[in-house]
Amino acid sequence: MVEQRAQDMTAELGVTVVAGFLGAGKTTLVNHLLQHADGRRLGVMVNDFGALNIDEALVDERRDDLITLSNGCVCCSLQGELSSSIESMIRRRGEQLDHLLIECSGVSDPERVVNVLHYPRLRARARLDNVITLVDAALDHAGLSPALRHLVASQVDNADLVVINKVDLVDEQDIARLEQAVLLPGSRHVRTTQAALPADFVFWPVSSEAPKCRRVRSRLSPATSIETLGLKTLSWKHEGAVDMTELSTLLHDMPKPILRFKGVVRLDDGRVLALQRAAGRLTSWELGNWPKGESQLVFIGEDTPSLWEWLSLRLERLPDCQQD
Ligand SMILES: Nc1nc2c(ncn2[C@@H]2O[C@H](COP(=O)(O)OP(=O)(O)OP(=O)(O)O)[C@@H](O)[C@H]2O)c(=O)[nH]1
């Protein structure tokens, strides 16, 4: 991998792949890097697992160098779309971009994204600089299904740098236990809050030697496929305002196997709220940049029929429920 990168240092566009399980802090890292780009011109590609791409709204600034890949996962069904989007990013922006950030969906194995970057037609023009995997320190990893634990292990094993994020939410002992459980011996890793990773960890100085990142050997094979993960998504759209009292009760009651929730909600008074739940914690903030009139909610969780029946029933009190 390092040898491949050394050959590619003259290629025009440096690429960082940002991976990590649902809600680990990938968008937070992308936003942090956009804010600490130090004059570097960054392109961003985001990929949400759900049918609605909420990440598009959550990445700071609406930019014409933001490409959204939705309704699938870059590690499987969207590989063709990923490669053509990278090509079009290179074509359209090649001379005006210094670096491309590819944010994978939370259920992607970054190895598959890296494979796309090795396609001959991309190799000469894009240079993979690093794979950064975020791990959610607040998530009960032991409580995940074996397939999802396998996915997280694969994300970690394929990283050049592992970012143990959300260390503000847990104590030192828990962090040490998590590191012991998920990291391979000698893995390059850092701890962060709000994914505040120094930019030097991500962007290689243009004139430097090839990056000395360590490519760990995967202890798992074959690569995780989305089909084996046993996950389901449910998305919901509504043209008008949403009753926050009803929605808040629903979100409060949501069972643990619904692993991730994201939404953008228009309120009666015209304000727009972004809402998220990851590792059981709900956060919300006012959003200034949502051009669409509608409210959108996406839920991702284990494929247990009773869970989705429960959610559908609750969502029926809010109109226009649509299952994927
Ligand atoms: N307390 C705390 N919250 C964090 C931290 N980093 C991120 N968050 C919150 O965690 C939630 C998920 O963060 P995102 O950056 O959207 O996670 P993601 O990996 O992009 O999520 P998906 O794309 O859905 O997989 C958001 O509500 C963030 O504000 C952190 O270090 N501490």
TrEMBL record:
Q: Does the keyword Ligase apply?
A: no
Q: Can you supply one Gene Ontology CC term for this chain's record?
A: cytoplasm
Q: Which GO terms describe its molecular function?
A: hydrolase activity; nucleotide binding
Q: Which CDD domains match?
A: CobW-like
Recite the UniProt keywords alphabetically. Answer: Chaperone, Hydrolase, Nucleotide-binding
**Which residue ranges does the record assign to the CobW C-terminal domain?**
231-312
Which reaction is recorded as catalysed by this protein?
Answer: GTP + H2O = GDP + phosphate + H(+)
Q: What job does the chain carry out?
A: Zinc chaperone that directly transfers zinc cofactor to target proteins, thereby activating them. Zinc is transferred from the CXCC motif in the GTPase domain to the zinc binding site in target proteins in a process requiring GTP hydrolysis.
Question: Which protein family is it in?
Answer: Belongs to the SIMIBI class G3E GTPase family. ZNG1 subfamily.
Q: What is this protein called?
A: GTP-binding protein
Q: From what organism does this protein derive?
A: Billgrantia pellis
